[in-house]
Amino acid sequence: MSVNAPRRHVLYVEDDRINIVLMEEVFRRLPDAWSLDCVEDGAQALSVLGERRPDLLLVDMNLPDMNGLELLTRLRAQYQGLTALPCVALSADALPEQVQAARAAGFTDYWIKPIDVLQLAEALQSLNLPGCGGRERP
Description:
By secondary structure, this protein is α/β, with parallel strands linked by helices. The protein has helices at 17-29, 42-49, 68-78, 96-105, 117-126; strands at 8-13, 34-39, 52-53, 56-60, 87-91, 109-112, 135-136.
């Protein structure tokens, strides 16, 4: 990417420290055009999203204060300007019904844990994310 290329900002909502460390490793392997912030529950995610709009939201489906479906519902209700924000669900639950429920709720994709660092880096780079990163919320 060129020096003037927009940064892609990702917010990762995850309560498991090991998964956070793995995601940080993924982002260390990506070009400098990517940035990552991590929060540990849905309430923190909603607070951060009120201040800064990421280009992508990665959501663990089993958070301590709400599940990923509830977080997405609250996000879309609370911040009308974020209805088009690409959101990816992450979970160890791989049952087809759970994947279908996440997609029906509006998740762009559903990635299965445990995270494979190399595959996840490729998946992130293959996402067609609109716009530039790190924008203040409109």
